[in-house]
Structure formats: structure tokens, C-alpha cells
Amino acid sequence: MGSRNLAARESALLQQNEVLNAASSMAQEEARAALQAMANATVEVNLSPIGGAPSGGDGRESRRATSKPAVHGNSVGCPARGDAMRSSSPLGSTSERSPSTKNLEGGPPTTPSTVQQCSKQNYNSTVADAKPPGGRNDGSISSLNKSAHSLAVDQARREQAATLQHLEEQVASITESNKATERATGKMLDQIDQMKSDRVTLVRKLQQIEVQLSKQKTAQAMLEVTYKGTEAELASTHTSLDEARRHEKHAAQSSKAVQIRLDRVVADLEKVKCDLKELKEQKGGAAVPRVDFERVGKEVTTLERQTAELITLYKKQSKLIDILKRQKLHLEAAKNIAFTEEEFSKTLDWGM
User: Fold this and answer.
1) CA distances from 232 to 72, 153, 239, 241, 328 (A)
2) How many CB atoms lie within 10 A of CB 33?
């Protein structure tokens, strides 16, 4: 998600920068077009046909005679020579800065065509005011034409200078806004680089966490395998415990039977000894027949051997009983271990 947001912000900033560059280029193109149009208008004004005859001595007199009417404004509302001289500052007055400002202030827009119309109207009005009742020569008409042409040229130059200054201000403001936008874009790109570095750090941390998680999963799998093996060992231990219990019961039963037999053999031996003693006492120490003596000796040997076997068997049974008791203790310990493993498995389940 972070990378998508960064990419979206980068694309938005690039689009905004492209839009600002396009607006700046369009403003520059408009300024160039306006300057070209004003230049064309100036050329048209300069190339406008002006009629008249060469001036002579009579022309000078007529120029002196008609200089006063040429100062006043005409009937159409175009500025006359006197007004033009009063407003001949380098960039014009505030109301004459550009056609756009005139439109905003409510005045009529000034274009090259209107300049030509004003010049022609000034010319016509000046000629009309300058005509004497009896008629003048062509020299005065030529001077009036020249003065009207100079007025039109001055007016066009002032309009062009004001429009040029306004367009230059617009270009400067657009350039400044473009620079501010570029600075903001640079700051945003720096922030994006910082966010990219933070993203790389976070991705590295995420990879480390994933590695640790995989290690923990591997350890958990190993613990589960060990737990299953321990469960299998516990089951086999329970089986061996059951078998040991059965063997213990069987050994106890056989031990009881051997003990009974041993008691019987001991009783028989004691009885035989008593009988032998009584027999010796009855005979008064006389010699016993060899056959009886050997038989009795064999019986005694057999009884002693049986007694030794019974004692050995009893010792083995005692050892077996000790072993079974130890196995019982081991089984009880295994039960405790099984309980601990149950708790461990529950803990693992809770952790999952």
C-alpha cells in the first residue's frame, strides 16, 4: 500500500508540474502572439495612405492658422494632440496599461483597428475644423495629415508599450509561480525519497521478522515432532508397564507357589531328620543298612538341592520384584512427564 501511495503522489506531482509548464508555455505563446499582433498593427498604421500636397510658404501660414483647432478633441471621443502630449509617459497611465485592464474598468477596448479609426476620425475632424470658409491650399491639409498620423503612431506605441508591460508582468508572475511549484515539487520529491528510504528500512525489518517467524515455525515443527515421538515413547512405556504388571502378578503367584513348595520341602526335611534321629535313637546307635542309608542320603541330597534351587528362585523372584517396583516408579514418573507434556501441548495450542 505504501508503494502504491508513493507512486500515485509522484504521478500527481508530475502531472501538476506538466500542467504548470503547459500554462507557462501557453502564456508565453499568448504574449508572443499579442506582441506580433501589435507589431502588425503598427506596420498597418505606418503603411496607412496619407494624402496631401507638398507644403510651401502658404502651407506654413495655413499651419499657423489652423494650429489651435488641432489641439482640441474630436467629436468621436478619440484623444487629440494636446491630450496625447499630456499622457506621453514611458508606460502610459494606469487606465491605459493594456486592453484587458480597459475592459475590466469598463472602457472600450483599444485595438489596432480602433487606433486606425481614431486616427482617421482625428484627421477628418481636424481637417473639418481647419477648413477656412473660403478654402485653403493643400499645404495645410498635408500638415494636418502628418499631425494626425503622428498622433495615431504615438497612441499605438503607448498602447503597445502598456500591453507589453502587462504581458511581461503576467509572464513574470507565471514564471515565479512555476518556480514556486518547482521548489514545492523538489520538496515533495525529497519527501518521496525519504519515504522510499523509510520503506526500504521497513521492508528490511519485515524480511527480518519473516526470517525469525520462519525460524520459530521450524522450531515449532521440530517441537511437534519431538512431542509426537515422546507420545509414542509414552505409549510404548505404558504398554511395557502393563506387561511388567502382568509379569509381576505372575511372578508373585509363582513365588507364592515356590514358597509353599519350599515350606513343604523344609517341613519334609525336618520330618525326615526327625525320623532319622528317632530311628538312630531306637536302634541305639547300631549300624543302619547301607541301602537305607544311601536312600536316605540321596533323599537328603535331593532335598538340599531343591532347597538351594528354591532359595535361588526366591532370590530371583525378589530381584524381579525389585525390578518391577522400579518400573512402577518409572511409570509414575512417566505419568508426571505426560502431564507436563500435556501442559506443554496446551501451551503450544494457546500460542497458536
Assistant:
1) 124, 113, 11, 14, 19
2) 11
If phi > 0 it is left, if psi is from -120 to 50 it is alpha, else beta; for residue 78 that is: beta
Question: Could you tell me if 31 and 170 are in contact, meaning their C-beta atoms sit under 8 angstroms apart?
Answer: yes
197 neighbors 72 (Cβ within 8 angstroms): no
Q: How many CB atoms lie within 10 A of CB 147?
A: 19
pTM for the whole thing? 0.31
pLDDT in single tens digits along all 352 residues of the chain: 556 676 777 777 777 777 877 877 787 777 777 777 776 766 555 555 444 434 444 444 444 434 433 333 333 344 433 443 333 333 333 333 333 333 333 334 444 444 444 444 444 544 444 444 444 456 667 777 777 778 888 888 888 888 888 888 888 888 898 888 888 888 888 988 999 899 999 999 999 999 999 999 998 999 999 889 888 888 888 888 888 888 888 888 888 888 888 888 888 888 888 887 877 777 655 555 677 777 888 888 888 888 888 888 888 888 888 888 888 887 787 777 766 666 666 766 665 5
Q: Is 45 helix (H, G, I), strand (E, B) or coil?
A: helix
Distance CA 71, CA 85 (A): 10
Which whole-number Å values give the CA distances from 1 to 4, 125, 198, 205, 230, in the listed order?
Answer: 5, 77, 14, 16, 46
Judge contact between 313 and 230, C-beta under 8 A: no
